[in-house]
Structure formats: C-alpha cells, structure tokens
Amino acid sequence: MKRAFLPVTLIILLITGVMLSGCNRAGSVFNGSGRIIDYEVKTANFNSLNIKGPFIVEIKQAETSKETLSTDDNLLNRIRISLERRTLKFNIEAPATFFPTSLKIAVAMPQIISLNLSDGARAVMSGFKSTDDFVLFMSKGSALDGYLEAGTVQFHLSGGSQVSLNGKALRLELDAKGGSELDLADFALTSAMVKLEEASEATLNVNGRFDAVLSDKSRVYYLGNPLFSDTSISGGATMLHK
Questions:
Q1: Deepest in the core among 99, 125, 137, 173, taking most CB within 10 A?
Q2: Has residue 116 got a pLDDT over 90?
Q3: How many alpha carbons lie under 13 Å from residue 128 in its C-beta half-sphere?
C-alpha cells in the first residue's frame, strides 16, 4: 500500500493560510468603518431602559422622547433595538466581537423608573427629578454617573459595577456583590437598608434609619447622622464614619 506524505513546510503554509484567511474575514466584517452615522430610533411610550454591551449612554429628562444611536455605518445592522412592555432595549447581536469606532446612545425621556446596564455599558443620567420609585440593575463591569431625585431607589449591583450619583431619595434598598462600588456621598437619603458582600464598597449619606448586613470584607463609609437599627457585620467587613 502506498502512502502520500505532504512536506512539513507545505503543511505549515496551508494551515497558516487558513488562519490568516479567517482573521481577514472576521476583521472585514466586525471592524468599524470609521464612517459614523446617527440613527434616530423613533420610539415612544417607554419609561425604562435595558442596555447590554459596551455602549456609552447619555440619558436626560425631557418633555418628549428622542433616541439616537451613533455608530459605524457597517455595524448598524449588528445592533438590536426593541420595545417590550415599555422597556427600550439595546444589545449587540451575537457573536459580539466587533470593534466599533463609536457606540453611543443619546436618550431623552420624560420619566425613568428602571435602568438595566450590563456587559460593560456606561451611562450618565441628568435632570431627573421625581418622587417616583426607581430600580437599577447593573452587572459585568457596568458604570453609572449623574444626577437623580426619586422616592425609593432599589440598586442591585454585581460583577464589579460602579455607581456615582448626586441627588436625593427618600429610601435606598441596596444589594451589592462581586466587588461592586457605590458612591452616594452627595446623594441625600432619609433611610437605607443595605446588603454588601464579596468585597463590595459603599459610601452613603444617611440621615435616618440605617439597616446594614455586611460580609466578605465589604466596606461601608457613612456621612450624616444615621440611626442604626438592624446591623450585622461579619467576615472582615467594616463600617466607618467618614
């Protein structure tokens, strides 16, 4: 029986050619063209946002709604926008391995009651003044900055997410884990109930009842004159006046 053998040099060249061909195809499909377009979403009647992916988001209060997506012209068809139960959603169609020149969202809306940021989304809020309740979900290295006034605020943070807000609220209900960080030094609170674990950290300004459960080397720094009620500190966690 005769056997065919390919020279080692030829085998290496064939493999290298296949790898380079695959890389070229991926780059041509997923790299941003550098030609930025502004796409107007034209969606109304929503009061919540869900942003998944490395978007940079500007959210401001306005009398009427307006939403604009700015990105490379060849990547626009990779971004999915939908409206479900008054929640406007933005996410990247899998596989999400492209490299945009710009990936920005500008949203103007009369009211916001819920915001969900995940997979590295970064948002800035401005102008929101309301007595309505507000719910925030953040995960996987997302970040939020800005200004907010609300009734009861519920924050659920995980995966190293970061929050820094100015403003005020009647009550904070906080659940933070996975090394997340919350800076509310300039966010006045009448009361707070917080749970921190997995080396998370919070700076809070509370002038009223303060309930806290801290574990796993988590840290709370507090300002104001809180009235401590239900407090549990374990696993190397700390609570200090700032």
A1: 125
A2: yes
A3: 31
